[in-house]
Amino acid sequence: MATISGFAYVVGDNIDTDQIIPAQYLMLLPTVPEEYRKLGSHALSGLPEELYPVRFVSPGEETTRYPILIAGRNFGCGSSREHAPIALAAAGCRIVIAESYARIFFRNAVSTGALYPYECAQRLCETIRTGDPVQIDLQDESLRSGGALHPLKPLGEARPVIEAGGLFQYARRAGMVPTP
Question: Which of 52, 138, 142, 150 would bridge 47 by S-S if both were Cys, CB 3.0 to 4.6 A apart?
Fold first, then answer.
């Protein structure tokens, strides 16, 4: 997979884990398929409707039409719940591009292998709008929107962990943990 293309969903600064997946849905177990899907159906449901009238997952749906999430600064702040990146992935989000992350969200995204958490030095949440088509080139680690090309901060050694499906899968493939 060299590119991820699709419509962007755009949020601002300081989107916390309660907005990504409200606490009442934390009892859902991501390892149970029907609960994983239900978790995805509630992704970003904690966002205030007056600020985000277009919902990330439409009511009655389990998945989103926005595989790419664009955010401002400090995305994923708040509680250290690994359900946050998992819920986004369960909804069909494949990549989050933020100006910066709360460290725990970034680590949870990598360790679960749920999605790619890229950073971009440019403030894309002010130039890209929800519904805009975008394309991410994973080889060049860049985002194209309209005619503009934006470099992304390389994921480095985190990328093989994400591509393996998370920390445990990566450790199994590398022979660090025995395969069951």
Answer: 52
